[in-house]
Amino acid sequence: MQAAQQLKDSLREIGDLKAALDEHAIVAITDPQGRITYVNDKFCAISKYSRAELIGQDHRIINSGHHPAEFIKDLWGTIGRGRVWHGEIRNRAKDGSFYWVDTTIVPFLDEAGKPRQYVAIRADITERKRAEEELKAKVNEVSDLKRALDEHAIVAITDPQGRITYVNDKFCAISRYSRAELIGQDHRIINSGHHPASFFHRLWSTIGTGRVWHGEIRNRAKDGSLYWVDTTIVPFLDDAGKPRQYVAIRADITERKRVEEEIRDLNNQLEQRVARRTADLELANKELEAFSYSVSHDLRSPLRTLDGFSQAVLEDHGELLPPEGRRYLQTIRTAAQRMGDLIDDLLSFSRLSRQPLTREAIDSVALVRSVADELSAEQPARTVELVIGELPVARGDFGLIRQVWMNLLANAYKYTGRSAHPRIEVGATTRNNEVVFHVRDNGTGFDMRYVGKLFGVFQRLHRVDEFPGTGVGLAIVQRIVHRHGGRVWAEGEVDRGATFFFTLGEEEAR
Amino acid sequence: MNAAEIVDILLVEDNPHEAELVMRALRRSRPGVRVGLVHDGVEALDYVFGEGKHEGRGPVEPPRVILLDLKLPKVDGLEVLRRIKSDKLARTIPVVMLTSSREQRDIDTSYRLGANSYVVKPVNYEQLASLVQDLGSYWLAVNQGSKSEG
Question: Tell me, what's the ipTM?
Answer without folding.
Answer: 0.84
